[in-house]
Amino acid sequence: MDNVGDQPLQPGQPGQPGQPEPTAQPSRAKAFGGGVLKRIIGLLVVVGIGIAVALFKASGATAPKVGDCIDHVKDNEIKVVECTNPAAEMKVIAVVGNQSEAQFDSNESCRPYPETDASYFESGGRGVTNGYVLCMVEK
């Protein structure tokens, strides 16, 4: 009779010949940690996108649409205003996207709109060469 200490081995106990060794269970801490990290990163991405959208909207940096009225604030700065606002000087008749500054300078962008009195170019941002052109008529 095999004894471990003073205790006899019982059939079915680990270490007995013919009995499989117990298998280690996968660590839940590792699986849990990986999932939490992914969720935190996902949450940070969503929050970052939300902040960027809020800042974009707060800056007033939205492209005017056809029918919007424009106030020429100063130099190269315009602002969309209600058409009933006395400051409204121009009305947008076309928004031509994916235009280069060269196309704008040559008046190519608004050529299909012969009634155009003025045009305005807005680039896509720092390092971006293309943008949109507003074709406008006096209000």
The helicity comes to: 25-40%
Average pLDDT, all residues:
77
Give the SSE string.
EEHEEEHEE
Could you give a short account of the major beta sheet?
5 strands, antiparallel
Q: Give the percentage of residues in beta strands.
A: 25-35%
Class from helix and strand fractions: alpha+beta
- Going across the biggest sheet, name each strand in turn: 4-3-5-7-6
Number of domains: 2
Question: What is the 3D shape?
Answer: elongated
Helical run tally: 2
Unreliable segments of 5+ consecutive residues: 52-60
What is the count of β-strands? 7
CA-based gyration radius: 35 Å
Can you put this structure into words, describing what you see?
It is a single chain. The chain is of the alpha+beta class. It folds into two domains: 28-62; 69-138, no CATH class. It has helices spanning 28-58, 101-105, and strands spanning 3-4, 7-8, 69-74, 77-81, 90-100, 118-123, 130-138. It has a five-stranded antiparallel sheet. The protein is elongated.
Protein traits:
139 residues; alpha+beta; elongated
